[in-house]
Design goal:
The complex is a heterodimer of chains A (355) and B (306). Chain A has helices spanning 2-15, 19-22, 41-56, 72-83, 97-106, 131-145, 160-174, 193-205, 219-226, 255-266, 294-309, 336-340; strands spanning 26-31, 60-65, 88-91, 111-115, 124-129, 150-155, 181-186, 210-213, 230-235, 246-252, 274-277, 284-286, 319-320, 326-328. Chain A has 355 residues and is α/β, with parallel strands linked by helices. Chain A has 2 domains: 2-129, Response regulator (Rossmann fold); 132-251 and 285-340, Rossmann fold, CATH 3.40.50.2300. The radius of gyration of chain A is 21 Å and the shape is globular. By secondary structure, chain B is mostly helical. Chain B has a single domain (3-293), classed as ABC transporter involved in vitamin B12 uptake, BtuC, CATH 1.10.3470. Helices cover 72% and strands 0% of the residues of chain B. The termini of chain B are far apart. The mean pLDDT of chain B is 92. The chains are: A alpha/beta (355), B mainly alpha (306). At the A-B interface, strand 7, helix 8 and helix 9 of A face helix 1, helix 4, helix 11 and helix 12 of B. Chain B: It is found in: Cell membrane. Chain B: This is Simple sugar transport system permease protein. Chain B: Keywords: Cell membrane, Membrane, Sugar transport, Transmembrane, Transmembrane helix, Transport.
């Protein structure tokens, strides 16, 4: 499929025969880490792309390359899109960071938007979502709902985006139960349904009674449903895979951002920036709170409202690091730079962070 | 259910698709054909199995459809490599790419739908035996099929005349042809068997392992199966050992991580590959025996002279 898409992209670049024809239409390219059919991370980016097409109609033309590995292939794929005449390119995974910056140097008139990274340039923007805000709410719910006091967390790779989530989750949980524990398993993959299912089974066999994940498929939700425990969805609303299991899910809502940025290119106001948006801006949406008693639901809604209004910031001291040293003093709030490069656990996480 | 039992069950589920796909490929390679399209046939089986189970509500019908889909897909490979004599390596790779693409297209409307799960066996009394009951008498049907398949393939290859003929074709197709053995027909049958097995392995993924359809859900398991065949030096029981070892280390490393033993997870994730390669290389270290088991005509095209 990937090869076919690439062939089509190359063919398209010849077919257009010069920029004159393409001038009135803004060509926008997307690089996906997984398949749009993963029903998770890539699915949501693709939903955003579809919203963009719907909103701007004839003014834009979008292409995407799927299943692009983070590595040498990424650079080649991004360059292909740039050569094919795309003037705005979204690279939608952390691991595309260096490749994006590299290609951007070669194509100064193309605008690049890299998701979840931290390196910007004249023509490279970074956009990121404060998923960890949703994780905090999940932590609160987990601590209320768990009988064993231990939740299982399936991680993909030990990168800041995922570590933020783990820390935020435990901090949320500690507000309810200071002794709350989480067990972490790293799948070392964003997308391997069978392995994610195995990880969920291993966690449940070791006594966790809540599953949360930062990997992209719905497999873990299904295992949790089968074993009759509760779980949180990831990236999209996974309620269909666990009607009696999912308590909520962090839904990535990229559409509005994609539309805003495409419009900016169209009217010439596009500027490189580094945005980090969350519940307030509508980038992080929580799926309906289900499968929990009313009082827990109320607490979750209150927590969400406080985060949305800015009254509550998950990374506010006093917070200790895992090794016991002080990270944030009482009342001190972590700045975005620290959050975006987070590479340590806070106290209470029962795992050693792989480096 | 004890922890030990739970782990055994998980290991069996993880090993079964590898075992089935590798057994199929074993027969193909023993006949002298190298089909690198296992991943593609497997993913076609997975999507067909899911789709048919979804429409009919029957996981069994889904499983049979997956077997047929894998076989039909392998027939394409057979026609290209055996009749048109295309390059086997290139054709096999193309088959994988085609399978991944075609399955994504077929499966588009099934994304996000919970699937039909194949029920596990339950025999009153036997399944309830402590410790071993669930492992021996309470698993999904495809697990039992995979064990029977191992016995069947081992018996067929080394205890029957037809198996001997198939191995002869794989070792020296020219001599076999001179003796009047229908080389191409035998290879066709072997290729179809391999496709059917890959299809069944795919069905195990989408009906038992994770009852859902997502693109690329095989995630490289077809390639692991291919590697198992070689590292097991083309012996069925070693494939079984290799598949279970791979499954056991995969699950073991997940448990070790959950226990928080503090070994880097990247190392843990590569452990199944390392362990399987090391063990299988060790048991195949007798060079003469290994050479004897390697199908000499593997991957070589055969054009019958009239």
């Amino acid at each position: 499929m990937k090869k076919l898409m690439m062939a089509l992209t190359i063919a398209a670049s010849f077919a257009v025969a010069g920029p004159a024809l393409a001038a009135d239409k803004l060509k926008i390219g997307f690089i996906y880490i997984g398949p749009p059919g993963d029903f998770g991370w890539t699915y949501q980016h693709d939903q955003g792309r579809k919203q963009l097409e719907k909103e701007l109609g004839d003014k834009v033309e979008t292409t995407f390359l799927e299943n692009v590995p983070e590595g040498a292939d990424a650079e080649r794929s991004i360059e292909r899109l740039a050569r094919a005449g795309n003037k705005l390119i979204f690279t939608t995974s952390f691991g595309y960071m260096d490749a994006t910056v590299k290609v951007a140097q070669k194509f100064p008139d193309v605008k690049f938007e890299h998701a979840t990274g931290y390196k910007t340039a004249e023509n490279v923007s970074v956009y990121n979502s404060r998923f960890y805000e949703g994780r905090y709410v999940q932590g609160v719910i987990a601590a209320k709902m768990s009988k064993t006091g231990v939740a299982g967390y399936i991680g993909s790779f030990p990168i800041p985006e995922v570590v933020q989530g783990i820390n935020s989750f435990i901090l949320g949980a500690q507000t309810v139960n200071p002794n709350f524990k989480i067990k972490v398993i790293w799948a070392n993959s964003w997308f391997d349904p069978a392995k994610e299912a195995d990880a969920a089974k291993a966690l449940i066999d070791q006594g966790v009674d809540i599953i949360t994940q930062h990997t992209d498929s719905t497999a873990a939700m299904q295992v949790a449903a089968e074993r009759k425990i509760k779980a949180f969805g990831q990236a999209s609303d996974m309620i269909k895979f666990g009607p009696e299991t999912q308590m909520t899910s962090i839904v990535d809502n990229w559409g509005p951002y994609y539309i805003e940025r495409a419009k900016a290119v169209l009217d010439g106001t596009w500027k490189s920036h580094n945005v980090f948006e969350g519940m307030k801006e509508g980038l992080v949406v929580m799926a309906p709170y289900t499968n929990m008693p009313d009082d827990v639901k109320k607490l979750a809604e209150e927590t969400q409202a406080k985060i949305t209004s800015g009254e509550l910031k998950p990374f506010t001291g006093p917070i200790k690091r895992q090794d016991g040293s002080e990270w944030l003093k009482a009342g001190e709030t972590a700045d975005d730079k620290t959050i975006l490069s987070m590479n340590f656990y806070v106290a209470g996480v029962d795992d050693k962070l792989p480096k | 259910m004890t922890m030990f039992e739970a782990i055994l069950l998980t290991v069996a589920t993880a090993a079964t698709p590898l075992l089935i796909a590798a057994l199929g490929e074993l027969v193909v390679e023993r006949s002298g054909v190298l089909n690198l399209g296992v991943e593609g046939m497997m993913v076609m089986g997975a999507v067909t199995g899911f789709a048919v189970a979804q429409y009919t509500g029957s996981a069994w019908l889904g499983m049979f459809a997956a077997i047929l889909a894998g076989a039909a897909f392998s027939l394409l490979f057979g026609f290209l490599t055996l009749t048109l004599i295309t390059n086997q390596v290139a054709t096999g790779l193309a088959l994988t790419l085609l399978g991944l693409g075609a399955s994504a297209m077929i499966g588009e409307s099934f994304v996000g739908l919970p699937g039909v799960r194949m029920d596990s066996l339950y025999i009153q009394g036997l399944t309830d035996i402590p410790y071993v009951g669930k492992v021996l008498f309470g698993q999904d049907p495809i697990f039992y099929i995979s064990i029977l398949l191992t016995i069947g393939v081992a018996w067929f290859l080394f205890r029957t005349r037809a198996g001997l003929t198939l191995r002869a074709v794989g070792d020296n197709h020219t001599s076999a042809h001179a003796l009047g053995v229908p080389v191409v027909r035998i290879r066709y049958l072997a290729v179809i068997f391999g496709g059917a097995c890959a299809g069944l392995a795919g069905a195990q993924l989408s009906l038992v392992y994770v009852p859902q359809w997502v693109e690329n859900m095989t995630s490289g398991r077809g390639w692991i199966a291919l590697a198992l065949v070689v590292f097991a030096s083309w012996r069925p029981w070693r494939i079984l050992a290799g598949a279970y070892l791979f499954g056991a280390v995969t699950i073991g490393q997940l448990h070790a991580q959950a226990l928080g033993i503090g070994v880097p997870s990247q190392f843990m994730s590569s452990l199944p590959y390392l362990a399987t390669i090391i063990v299988l290389v060790l048991i195949s270290r007798n060079k003469r025996l290994t050479l004897m088991n390697t199908p000499t005509s593997l991957g070589k095209p055969f054009v019958p002279d009239r």
